[in-house]
Specification:
6-stranded parallel sheet; Rossmann fold; alpha/beta; 12 strands; about 45% helix; about 15% strand
């Protein structure tokens, strides 16, 4: 198949690392793929995976004079179809903000559509239900190429034309049971047959050897890692408070925040005010393969993701960052939000109440004190990922849906 992936930035920028393995697995299975990011940055993301994916990517600016001119020519060529798509966007966007967001990418959608028509594309798949899927919607309406999209977390309550997109899409992939239930509340039972729960996966072939490792590293400190962008939904400030509680109890710990984001300055001030600079380190965004290397070398004792539900209703899907740690038999701690319980149920990890630094501290303390608990959680988490989140199996199912 000739498949086009519409992404927000991948393989450019620092986000969406979780999409890269899926794209590479589709290529490994012998399909021709093209990746088109909506808002590409100037630089390819760090690491080997973005470099590999960049070879199959086309960098088209979000907007420039050439794009505008090309889109005007497409309008002249088929004015009625373009006007109909415009009308549907105005009709279904639901708010002025979403209308402006969708119209801002409209010229690019037209130009991408004309390009994909010439390339005889078989299927278009967008990640996210926001403007990425709007571009896929525009392309499909313009060309008749079948399309689908993956919904993650914040893009569900945003509800950017979801019911109209459900009508025109071949299928909707939702990465968690909680997300699936939320989507059905929006699109209704009318489109239930188009909605499928299909997790994001991890490449278990990477972990076959590492999965046999044991906790042998001789170290002074208990090492905690939080691989998450510095966003409100990730709940970093509650982990900072938990670390302060553990320090007061005299535990020798180190905590590394791997990720960037708008809360970098605010979180840095909290760490400084609590005099935790020697314990909590902001490492910034690191290449995906570098993070996995740290896991493989037993440089991390546990992964903590203190996610929350924000006041706007934003929450996690099923975080790939937890799956990857589990695949290396690293015990994980997270919260009772979004799709996280779906991943950690059955003793695959420790689930604590959201926004509760004291419960977080208790969970971390339990791991510090009990090596057998760490080993048991690591084994159970590893088995859960191997059985239910194999990237190869998930991509096979995804391709079957694309083929119909």
């Amino acid at each position: 198949m000739k498949i086009v992936y519409i992404t927000a930035q991948t393989p450019y920028g620092k986000g969406e690392q979780f999409i890269l393995p899926e794209i590479l697995e589709i290529i490994n299975k012998g399909h021709e793929i093209m990746v088109i990011p909506v808002r590409p940055e100037k630089e390819i993301a760090l690491g080997n995976e973005p470099k590999k994916v960049s070879k199959f990517s086309i960098c088209i600016p979000l907007i420039d004079i050439n794009l505008i001119l090309k889109s005007m020519l497409i309008f002249i060529k088929c004015p009625l179809r373009v006007m109909k798509i415009t009308f549907e966007i105005l009709r279904h966007s639901g708010s002025l903000k979403k209308i402006f967001k969708n119209l801002a990418i409209f010229p690019k959608g037209l130009v991408v559509g004309e390009m994909l028509r010439r390339k005889k594309t078989n299927h278009i798949h967008a990640h996210w239900g926001s403007t990425t899927s709007t571009i896929a919607y525009i392309v499909s309406q313009l060309t008749g190429i079948p399309w689908s999209f993956t919904l993650h977390r914040w893009d569900i309550p945003e509800n950017n034309m979801l019911k109209e997109k459900a009508r025109s899409a071949k299928f909707i992939r939702v990465i968690s049971k909680s997300g699936y239930d939320e989507v059905l509340e929006i699109v209704g039972d009318e489109y239930k047959n188009k909605c499928f729960i299909l997790h994001m996966g991890v490449d278990i072939t990477k972990f076959s050897k590492e999965g046999e490792k044991t906790d042998k590293r001789d170290k002074d400190s208990f090492i905690i890692a939080t691989p998450a962008n510095l966003l409100e939904v990730k709940g970093h400030k509650y982990l900072i408070e938990a670390i302060e509680t553990l320090r007061q109890k005299g535990y020798n710990i180190k905590c590394y925040f791997f990720g960037d984001g708008p809360l970098r300055e605010e979180l840095g001030k909290i760490v400084n005010n609590m005099n935790l600079r020697d314990i909590i380190t902001f490492e910034g965004a690191i290449p995906h393969d570098r993070l996995l290397e740290l896991y493989a070398k037993s440089e991390v004792d546990c992964v903590v993701l203190p996610s929350i539900i924000t006041d706007k209703g934003e929450h996690e899907g099923i975080p790939l960052s937890l799956m990857e740690a589990m695949a290396y038999k690293i015990p994980v701690i997270s919260t009772n939000t979004g799709g996280i319980p779906e991943l950690l149920e059955g003793g695959a990890g420790i689930i604590v109440e959201q926004k509760n630094p004291y419960k977080l501290a208790e969970a971390i303390e339990a791991l510090i004190k009990d090596k057998d608990l760490r080993r048991k959680l690591g084994e159970t988490g590893y088995n859960k990922v191997m059985e239910e989140f194999s990237l190869s199996n998930i991509v096979i199912k995804l391709l079957e849906l694309m083929k119909g």
